[in-house]
Structure formats: structure tokens, C-alpha cells
Design brief:
Protein name: dTDP-glucose 4,6-dehydratase
Oligomer: single chain
CATH class of one domain: Alpha Beta
Largest sheet: 7 strands, parallel
Number of strands: 12
Structural class: alpha/beta
CATH architecture of one domain: 3-Layer(aba) Sandwich
Helix content: 40-55%
Strand order of the largest sheet: 3-2-1-4-5-6-10
CATH topology of one domain: Rossmann fold
GO molecular function: dTDP-glucose 4,6-dehydratase activity
GO biological process, one term: nucleotide-sugar metabolic process
Pfam family, one: GDP_Man_Dehyd
Strand content: 15-25%
CATH superfamily of one domain: NAD(P)-binding Rossmann-like Domain
Distance between the termini: 48 Å
Bound molecules: thymidine-5'-diphosphate
Shape: globular
Order of helices and strands: EHEEHEHHHEHEEHEEHEEHEHHHH
Family: Belongs to the NAD(P)-dependent epimerase/dehydratase family. dTDP-glucose dehydratase subfamily.
Length: 352
């Protein structure tokens, strides 16, 4: 089965493509618009792989997507393409509405038109898998149970509202047109190739450059952390064995406060790359003003996926974080390339 992966040069998309091609000889068509967070360097190890086809373009370009679906006889679409950074969505939400909502709508329509014309067997096997977020369930109190698939959507940020809207469109295309969709709502991901605007890679970058490690408010907000390769293995499983029309939550059962995350990170860095002055990276932690509408806690109940598809996360938070730190220490050039002009503008806007 040839798959079309959208947002394939982004963080989770590129990890997914690399993992997929590591385990399969089938073709992958990678589509990415290469906006600020998409980076072709993430896929550079595939440059000699004849099963990989990269196309620069938008999920909203119906002509292009329709042409690709037909040309490569695509059997499944995995939609990672999205604007994903909450802080950016607070500064300016237009791109989130356009990519996450209108883009998904256009992708669904391209898929529906292609799928309608397929022969019976191919039509039955086709899948549209939509990758979404735990943030659509909104903020939990510390004593609430983790979010499960039947919990109501209560998004609070422009980002999470745009993802919630896209999830509703995907659901409607199944209910109305019977397009064979699957939706995956995952916890906060971390791992190789994550753009250093998110908490973990930003903290690694700043730690190594002797800069403050900015923690919003008191750092007591809780996120549920999932190593990106565990997310990729869950998506594979859901794509192959998931029930059409269903939603699956993916999480690692690793709830941590932001302060715990950064302190653990500092301890790993102290061990792997001790500072020349003998001090700890923890000294660089700096409490800064809070994010507007900052959600207190996200937590994911992944028991449906574990029960029905026998999936388990392989990494603990400590093993996953250690792998992540090692990857960043080993990929200084990658980091140097992504923190060019636009990134500096963002850091100035957000942290000055
Ligand atoms: P982030 O990585 O942006 O993911 P999300 O907002 O999707 O959960 O942020 C993770 C948590 O870390 C969130 O509670 C905000 C906090 N945070 C900081 O304290 N400082 C920072 O510089 C950033 C980027 C995030």
C-alpha cells in the first residue's frame, strides 16, 4: 500500500516516514509546504531511497493532491500537516484556521473525490488517518481522570480550537459520506527533529547556549509526555488494525509538571555534557510571565488502544528523554540550521 503523508517534513511526520520506510518496501509520498517548522533535512537520509517521493505543496491544493493520489495510487492518507504551536496561535491565529481547518477540509474533499472513483476492493481498503491532539479535550483539574475518547471537546486556545474543528470535519466526512477515517489524539510528543519552539528542545538549546530556561508562571502545569517513536508505532497499528470511524487516544502515562520536565532534562545534561564551571544547568531556570489562557493539565487515557489493539509505549519518560538529549547533542548542525532568521524573530517576540 502506498501512503501519502502530509506534513512529512515536520517533527512527527518525518519521524513517521523514517520509521515506516525502515519497516516497509512500499512507497511513501511525502507532501509538505516547508513552512518555518518543515525541514527537508529531516528526510535527508532518504535521498537515495527509491520508495520515497517528496513533493513540496499544500494540503489545501486540491489539484495537486488529486494528481498525487491518482499518480501514486495511494491507499491511505496520514494527515500530520498542521500549525501546532500554542504560543504562536495566541500571537496570530490566521494560519491555524487556514491550515488546520480549511486545509483539512480541502484534503478531505480531495480524498473523498478520489475514493469515490476507486474500485470496490481498493475503496474498502482506503484509509484517511487524521493526527490530532489531547488539547481538544481542554484543561483537566489535578484530580480529574485522564481524557478518554468519549469526553466532550472543550478546546481553550486558538490552536486547540482549530484542531477540534478539524476533528469534527473528519468525523462528519465519515458520518455523512462514509469516507473511511480514523482519528488519533495524542499526548505531548518529544524526540528527534522537534523544532526548538516547544518546551523540551527549546530548553536543550538554551541550556547548551548558556541562556535562561524560561518556565511560564510557577511551572506546575502538567503535560502527559509521549516519545515520538511510540506515537509512530501507535499510528501504524491504528492505520492497519483500527476500526473505521473510531478515535484512539495515544499517551505514555507519563504526567509531569513543566518544572519536573526541565529539572530532569538538566540532570541528564549535567551527566552527559557537564558545564565547564562545574555548576548545574538547573541554575539557568528562569520563571517568566504566564501564557494567556494557560491550560493547567492534559492527560490521556490510552486504555482503548492498549485493550483493542494491544499497543504499549516502549519508552519511559526518562529513557525517552535521554534518547532525545543524546540526539540533540549529536545533531548540532541540524539545530544551527533551524535557528536561523525566522526563529530569532520568534524568540524576540515571545521572550523579550
Ligand atoms: P509546549 O511545548 O509549547 O506544548 P503545549 O503548549 O502544546 O503543551 O509547552 C509545554 C508546556 O510547557 C506548556 O505548559 C507551556 C510550557 N512552556 C514553558 O513553561 N516555557 C516555554 O518556553 C514553553 C515553550 C512552554
Amino acid at each position: 500500500m502506498t501512503i501519502l503523508v502530509t506534513g512529512a517534513a515536520g517533527f512527527i511526520g518525518s519521524n513517521f516516514v523514517l520509521d515506516w520506510l525502515n519497516q516497509s518496501k512500499e512507497d511513501v509520498v511525502s507532501l509538505d509546504l516547508l513552512t518555518y517548522a518543515g525541514n527537508l533535512e529531516n528526510l535527508s537520509s532518504l535521498s537515495q531511497n527509491s520508495n520515497h517521493h517528496f513533493i513540496q505543496g499544500s494540503i489545501g491544493d486540491r489539484n495537486l493532491v488529486s494528481e498525487l493520489l491518482k499518480k501514486y495510487q495511494v491507499g491511505a492518507i496520514v494527515n500530520f500537516a498542521a500549525e501546532s504551536h500554542v504560543d504562536r496561535s495566541i500571537h496570530e491565529s490566521k494560519d491555524f484556521i487556514e491550515t488546520n481547518i480549511v486545509g483539512t477540509y480541502n484534503l478531505l474533499e480531495s480524498a473523498r473525490s478520489y475514493w469515490n472513483d476507486l474500485d470496490k476492493n481498493l475503496k474498502q481498503d482506503f484509509r484517511f488517518l487524521h493526527v490530532s491532539s489531547d488539547e481538544v479535550y481542554g484543561s483537566l483539574n489535578l484530580t480529574d481522570p485522564p481524557s478518554n475518547e468519549s469526553d466532550p471537546y472543550k478546546p481553550n486556545s486558538p490552536y486547540s480550537a482549530s484542531k477540534a474543528a478539524s476533528d469534527h470535519l473528519v468525523r462528519a466526512w465519515f458520518q455523512t459520506y462514509k469516507l473511511p477515517v480514523l482519528t488519533v489524539n495524542s499526548a505531548n510528543n518529544y524526540g528527534p527533529f522537534q523544532f526548538p519552539e516547544k518546551l523540551i528542545p527549546l530548553s536543550i538549546l538554551n541550556a547548551l547556549n548558556d541562556k535562561p530556561l524560561p518556565i511560564y508562571a510557577d511551572g506546575q502545569q502538567v503535560r502527559d509526555w509521549l516519545y515520538v517513536k511510540d506515537h509512530c508505532s501507535a499510528i501504524r497499528e491504528i492505520l492497519i488494525n483500527g476500526q473505521i470511524g473510531e478515535t484512539y487516544n495515544v499517551g505514555g502515562r507519563h504526567e509531569k509538571t513543566n518544572l519536573e520536565v526541565v529539572e530532569t532534562l538538566c540532570a541528564i545534561l549535567d551527566e552527559l555534557k557537564p558545564k565547564s564551571n562545574g555548576k548545574s544547568y538547573v541554575d539557568q531556570i528562569t520563571f517568566v510571565k504566564d501564557r494567556l489562557g494557560h491550560d493547567k493539565r492534559y492527560a490521556i487515557d490510552a486504555s482503548k488502544l492498549e485493550r483493542e489493539l494491544d499497543w504499549r509505549a516502549q519508552e519511559t519518560f526518562e529513557t525517552g528523554l535521554r534518547k532525545t538529549v543524546l540526539w540533540y547533542l549529536d545533531h548540532e548542525a541540524w539545530m544551527d540550521h533551524v535557528v536561523s532568521g525566522e526563529y530569532q524573530e520568534w524568540v524576540k517576540k515571545q521572550y523579550s
